[in-house]
Design goal:
GMP Synthetase, Chain A, domain 3; four-stranded mixed sheet; 11 strands; alpha+beta; single chain; 32% helix
């Protein structure tokens, strides 16, 4: 059976990703400056919207330390590389605040004495043997292209590029295994007057560099399908926190419960339990129990025990092993109470700004504790392997 599948990513200058980075920078600031019990009591649910020269920061934040929101906004915009000509001026943009404390009714269910889930919701984790990172190939290539676009801009290899951009990769699968890249689509903001040279420059310095063995003359590459991309960033498009949840996860090849990650402290299971789901799915696949795995959780606000736990290996489980058996072993090996998840993955640290671009999964970074495969031996022992 032959099929194709496409996934997309966006650069750090995409309006939605501007917002994700600011939201997570606020969270990091709260976690970094609250110490001891104050850090444990801190609660962050920070949303950001951008349009034109306006930045709106809103949400519910309970913290003994009060962040300098305006300084954070301007710092993030500068680090991305924005100026007035490219889409938003970090020095003169207007920053609007509407921040209150966490609702006491929610706080009651997430106190340190009774740390239940910070909200109801469904969470999914996914892993597959099709890449060394145990991630789907289309989203991994799309992320690498997006990261490379930022690199060649910041390293002045292609200094005429501007911060906003998107990538998309179409991969051909045969019998559920990726065999070749069929198409690459890039939308990249640029200074005026470079429309003609941009496709050749991106082919040479971005596409060929990233695709490597997956590149051939048969790969169909499209750069800026409308011919030009000069007006970009918040001047061309509004941005909002949490609007790139498929980019953040598995590129659509794993299901998503709908809850965004950025700007949320780990008492929100939208974030912490999704990280745990990836941790579980990755260890199942790394242990050789299955070639593909989707792991599912669901929670009720204020309650520590999950409402649902499920394993789906899509018929790829090792011979003689069932999904029901894997679920039984998982229950013995992994924690599911929110407080235990936070401790196990060490989630009360200021590590989140870097998760806000180029995906939360499949990255080699010691701070991304959910990418560890340290439960492989325990799972294999239970499976008798």
């Amino acid at each position: 059976m032959v099929r194709t599948y496409a996934s997309e990513s966006v650069t750090e200058g995409h309006p939605d990703k501007i917002c994700d980075q600011i939201s997570d920078a606020v969270l990091d600031d709260v976690l970094a400056h609250n110490q001891g019990e104050a850090r444990h009591r801190a609660r962050v649910a920070c949303e950001v919207a951008v349009k034109g020269q306006e930045v709106f920061v809103f949400g519910e934040i309970t913290s003994e330390y009060q962040p300098d929101y305006e300084a954070i906004v301007r710092c993030i915009l500068r680090e991305i590389g924005y100026d007035r000509e490219s889409g938003i001026d970090p020095n003169t943009c207007q920053v609007h605040l509407c921040v209150t404390q966490q609702s006491p009714e929610i706080a009651r269910g997430t106190s340190e004495e009774h740390l239940g889930a910070g909200d109801q919701g469904m969470m999914f984790g996914y892993a597959t043997t099709e890449t060394p990172e145990l991630m789907p190939l289309p989203i991994m290539l799309a992320h690498r292209l997006a990261r490379r676009l930022a690199q060649v801009r910041k390293d002045h290899i292609l200094p005429y590029l501007r911060p906003d951009g998107k990538t998309q990769v179409t991969v051909e699968y045969q019998d559920d295994r990726p065999v070749r890249v069929r198409k690459v689509v890039i939308a990249q903001q640029h200074q005026p007057g470079h429309e003609e040279q941009l496709p050749a420059d991106l082919l040479e310095h971005v596409i060929k560099t990233v695709l490597g063995e997956y590149y051939s003359e048969e790969v169909r590459c499209t750069v800026n399908g409308t011919g030009a991309f000069v007006l970009g960033g918040p001047m061309a498009d509004a941005g909002l926190t949490g609007r790139k949840i498929i980019v953040d996860t598995y590129g659509g090849l794993g299901r998503h419960g709908g809850g965004a990650f950025s700007g949320k402290d780990p008492t929100k299971v939208d974030r912490s339990a999704n990280y745990l789901c990836r941790y579980v799915a990755k260890n199942i696949v790394a242990a050789g129990l299955a070639e593909r795995c989707e792991f599912h959780l669901a929670y009720c606000i204020g309650r520590p025990d999950p409402e649902a736990i499920g394993v789906n290996t899509f018929g790829t489980a090792r011979r003689g092993i069932t999904d029901e058996q894997i679920e039984e072993w998982v229950r013995k090996v992994f924690p599911f109470h929110p407080a235990d998840i936070i401790r196990e993955l060490d989630l009360r640290r200021p590590i989140y700004r870097k998760t806000a671009v180029y995906g939360h999964f499949g990255r080699e970074d010691p701070d991304f504790t959910w990418e560890r495969t340290d439960r492989v031996a325990a799972l294999r022992e239970l499976a008798g392997l």
